[in-house]
Amino acid sequence: MSDVVKYIIKRLLTGVLVVLCVTVIIFGIMQAMPGTPIELMTDTRVSEEKVAQLEEKWGLDKPPVVQYFYWLGNICKGDFGTSITTGQDVAYLIGQRLPYTLMLTGAAILVEYLLAIPLGLVAAVRRDGILDKFLTIVMVVLWSMPAFWLGVLFIREFAVNKSWFPISGYSGFRSLVLPALTLALPALAQIFRLTRSEVLDVMEEKHVETAYAKGISDRKVLVRHVLRNALIPVTVTFFLSLPWLIGGSVVVENVFAWPGMGQLLWKGIAKQDFPIVQGIVFVIAVLTVICNLIGDIVSGILDPRIRME
Amino acid sequence: MKWKKSKLRQVVKKPLFFIGFFMMLVVVLAAVFAPQLAPHGFADQALNMKLAPPCAQFPLGTDRYGRCILSRILFGSRIALKVGLVAVVIETVIGVTLGILAGYYGKKTDRVIMFVTDMIWSIPPIILAMAIVLLLGPSAENVAISVALVTWAQFTKIVRAKVQSIKSLSYIEAAKVYGESDLQIILRYILPNLTSTIVILASLALPSAILSTTSMGFLGLGAQEPLPDWGMILSNGIQFIKKAPWVTFWPGLAIVWTVLGFNLAAEGLKELLDPRMKV
């Protein structure tokens, strides 16, 4: 087990380093932006003393490096600062919105995998059949679909014309259906393709042939021998794709006015609200690094060959 | 990039490739002949025809300023293609260069480049791209740059792996013994071996780049009014979804048509050059 532990520790340290570098990049971008938040919230009539006072209050008068470490130190204490535009606690704002984003991405990833894995398996088993060809075409179309358009079509068809679901916002489970589908469907193709090609690869291996030769039923061979091996890369992709979904949710949250982090980030960027943008990107980067780490560890455990690299 | 006649025949049999190629051609022709095809200018306003439904004068209806949707979509294809192409060219150059450096030199160079790659991948691309565009200011050019800056890493990983396997071939060793410089070896022996990989990767990256750039347009970060960015036309139409669904429907269809066409054509190209390559 010691090499597993070593592997995990190595990945953990890299993860921490990555998060640190991400914070530097984001901080750098926010610093390089033209205009200061003070200029945005006050107008030219405000006296210079008042501006200086505000700058001092937010720590904007100090050199960027000092500001960075000040901010980093506070984050380690769980203090994300306060929003420059509304004066609300950033940690509180994020805490309020994070569950909605996680709910949306969680539901989307559930839909994605529950559809993609069985479809991928069926397509691989009936390779080059009508169903396989049909599914392949459907997947290319979905892959080429901008999520925002899909969302608009859904709203028009199922919320405006049929009024089965609410048009926007969050008011219970029914509000979740359309945004989750909008987020999941364009992402479906990737998992479908991966499952299909992995299943095809595994089916050509010797141990599957042996299993058939032993007279084990088709269904048992498929589930026990083929799917079990084919799902290793699919499982790893599960963790790697989470950040992409969180990113995609920025667009989808905008279409459906979903009260998640994406909306908050979007407004924060438009108003150059540094603490909000930095806080959210930090949270997303940490989530991503954790997901990548879990992906690496899971693949290391499932497939011992990876640990050796 | 040699192919046998039998291989060509195989691809000719694939109808999807041809459909894709045809769809692609339609978009390119629309972009080239937009001024001839469009019934109106993309910024012409018919103020007494706001949100007019499709009719003889405005085949796809009008938006809230009474502008012809069809003309805006036709002129918009120029923006979509240009931004997508520029993004792909930049990301290919960055990604391939870093991939070759990492794969060829190995050791510390490799570790630093791979670390940067991992870091870029630790922020969801669209979020990093949003941050970069806000730094540079919203415009079509800056969207292209930002999308390129967050997507080059996929090239790096694949090119690096490919270079690692080419590097150990005996003729490269021989060239080294002859005292050829690293630059000569890279340009004369390694780059030619990468041609089909790069062509495949770039052709697959183009439809995703078009999709990402229209997403940025949708968020209001792309070409600004009155320029006809497809994503922006769509997002400006959402508030009229009940009254004037055509404002959101047609630009969305244009995006799907374009991205799908380029995707199918790219798949066909990959089938032709290197069917076993995993992307």
Structure overview:
- The complex is a heterodimer of chains A (309) and B (279).
- Chain A is an all-alpha fold and 309 residues long.
- In chain A, 36% of the residues are buried.
- The model of chain A has no long low-confidence stretch (mean pLDDT 83).
- Chain A is flat, with a radius of gyration of 24 Å.
- Chain A has helices at residues 2-32, 37-41, 48-58, 64-76, 90-125, 130-143, 147-161, 173-203, 206-213, 218-256, 261-270, 274-302.
- In chain A, α5 runs antiparallel to α6 (130-143), α8 (173-203) packs antiparallel against α10 and α9 packs across α10 (218-256).
- Chain A is 78% helix and 0% strand.
- In chain B, α6 (125-136) packs antiparallel against α7.
- By secondary structure, chain B is mostly helical.
- Chain B has helices spanning 5-12, 15-32, 34-37, 69-105, 107-120, 125-136, 140-151, 153-167, 170-177, 182-218, 230-237, 246-273.
- Chain B has a single domain (6-47, 56-273), classed as MetI-like fold (Orthogonal Bundle).
- The longest helix of chain B has 37 residues, at 69-105.
- The mean pLDDT of chain B is 88.
- Chain B is built from 12 helices and no strands.
Keywords:
heterodimer; A: 309 residues; mainly alpha; flat; B: 279 residues; MetI-like fold; 12 helices; elongated
Describe the structure in brief:
Chain A has 309 residues and is an all-alpha fold. In chain A, 78% of the residues lie in helices and 0% in strands.
Instruction: Briefly note the structural class of the backbone of chain B.
Output: mainly alpha
| Uncertain stretches of chain A | none
Largest interface: A-B, 49 and 42 residues
Q: Describe the biggest sheet of chain B?
A: none
Q: Helical amount among residues of chain B, as a percent range?
A: over 70%
